[in-house]
Amino acid sequence: MLLWLASRSSRGYDPRPMSDSPALPVGVVCDFDGTVTVLDIGDEISRHFGGDAHWQTQKAAFLRHELDTRGIILGIYTSVFASEAEVRKFAAEHAVLRKGFLELLSAAHETGAPFILASGGLRQYVEAVLEAHVPEPLRSHIELRANEGLFGDGPLGVHFPWATRSRVLGCSSCGTCKRVSVADLRARGVQKILGIGDGFADRCLLERSDLAFARKDSYLARWCTEKKVAHTEFEELFDAARAVLDTAKR
Ligand SMILES: [Mg+2]
Ligand SMILES: [Zn+2]
Asked: How far is the CA of 174 from the centre of ligand 2 (A)?
């Protein structure tokens, strides 16, 4: 692996997979909040533990462009003083998975398609939801990339483990940019990337996906239409599951 990485970097930014890397016809990069789950769990945590008024204030600042994606992720938790155990329990109890998600994951598992769950949410609550609602072996097929909740004496803080790589790849507004996941799958030899999302932070993902899925009536779907980004709109994830199976067969 190290040799492979070394030889790649000597080739600069050539996006072609090395000939010795296995060709993977399809891979998935999927958002979590509002995409895998019906509601945005991060928002629900903020409102429940930190108060609806604080959450509304943060959202309004975001809509006025006073906060970027990283800023809103930090902002919604500054009035949350709950413990990690409380946050995990709340998330597991309140999350409802979108219909078709298990089928989508199962399609990726069956065909050996990599599945990156790229979330601007916090690893701890995403894991709690997956543990409660996604059976094995499907759960182990998920490669989770999320931010880290920093639980301590003060308010809930957030660490962005992917911030440096996001900036290197040209994005400083997402905090954890999903373009990093797209680039990594391409480097592994994935030929077609299915990007799935609903929000502001999924723009960088859908722009770079070969098959883009945006949740119907979401910010992302409106943005795709405006920017003429070809996309499929979804309410359930069965079409995305079918797209994985069809693309894997080709
Ligand atoms: Mg989302
Ligand atoms: Zn970005």
From this structure: 4
